[in-house]
């Protein structure tokens, strides 16, 4: 029984997506190991190294991953959750932000906030599809993002228009 070309292409795309998630998880764990501490992690250096690793899997449309991060130490469990969240959001930007022939950056900002920390992952791409609702999205990537937000006891807001999409996650340092 032969498969249709669209079915086999869809399978290849899903396998690439799964492979990229595995690579992202491996990159997070590698970066945590390189910090030399299982107790506390300097999140700024961790995110820089993580995004450098992710850049190796980026399509040609991604010109750069710009990271701006305050110097903050967090427990390794919280840092790993933030790292996995960043990996998923950055990978989603790789896949959806820039159509073929267009290029741009992905921005990762991590800073102190009055209650703890604030993470922003943004791009200047095409924006989320019209009618997209993060709270009711059934896509696997958004389910992963929402699970990590819950794991971090954080809150997430999303704003998107063509030319600017921002995922903003705020959590406590505790």
Structure, described:
This protein is of the alpha+beta class and 174 residues long. It has four helices and seven strands, in the order αβαββαββαββ. The chain has helices at 5-34, 43-55, 76-96, 140-151; strands at residues 40-42, 62-69, 73-75, 104-113, 116-123, 155-161, 164-172. Strands 2-4-5-7-6 form a five-stranded mixed beta sheet, with helices on one face. Strands 1-3 form a two-stranded antiparallel ribbon. It starts with a helix and ends with a strand. The mean pLDDT is 84.
List the helices and strands and how they pair.
Elements: H1 5-34, E1 40-42, H2 43-55, E2 62-69, E3 73-75, H3 76-96, E4 104-113, E5 116-123, H4 140-151, E6 155-161, E7 164-172
Parallel strand pairs: 2-4
Antiparallel strand pairs: 1-3, 4-5, 5-7, 6-7
Task: Briefly say what this structure is.
With 174 residues, the protein is of the alpha+beta class.
Low-confidence stretches: none
Largest sheet, strands/sense/barrel: 5 strands, mixed
Strand percent estimate: 25-35%
Oligomer state of the chains in this structure: single chain
Termini gap = 56 Å
Number of helices: 4
Nearest-integer average pLDDT: 84
Total DSSP E strands: 7
SSE arrangement, N to C: HEHEEHEEHEE
Give the proportion of residues in helices: 40-55%
Strand order of the largest sheet: 2-4-5-7-6
Radius of gyration: 16 Å
Helical/strand content category = alpha+beta
């Amino acid at each position: 029984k032969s498969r249709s070309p669209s079915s086999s292409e869809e399978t290849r795309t899903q396998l690439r997506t799964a492979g990229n998630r595995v690579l992202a998880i491996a990159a997070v764990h590698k970066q945590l190991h390189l910090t030399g501490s299982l107790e506390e992690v300097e999140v700024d250096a961790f995110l820089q190294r993580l995004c450098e690793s992710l850049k190796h899997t980026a399509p040609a449309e991604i010109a750069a991953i710009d990271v701006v991060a305050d110097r903050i130490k967090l427990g390794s469990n919280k840092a790993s959750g933030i790292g996995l969240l960043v990996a998923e959001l950055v990978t989603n930007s790789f896949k959806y932000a820039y159509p073929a022939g267009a290029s741009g950056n992905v921005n990762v900002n991590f800073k102190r906030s009055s209650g703890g920390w604030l993470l922003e992952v943004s791009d200047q791409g095409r924006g989320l599809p019209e009618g997209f609702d993060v709270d009711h999205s059934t896509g696997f990537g958004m389910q992963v993002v929402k699970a990590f937000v819950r794991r971090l006891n954080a809150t997430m807001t999303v704003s998107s228009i063509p030319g600017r999409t921002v995922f903003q996650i705020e959590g406590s340092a505790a």
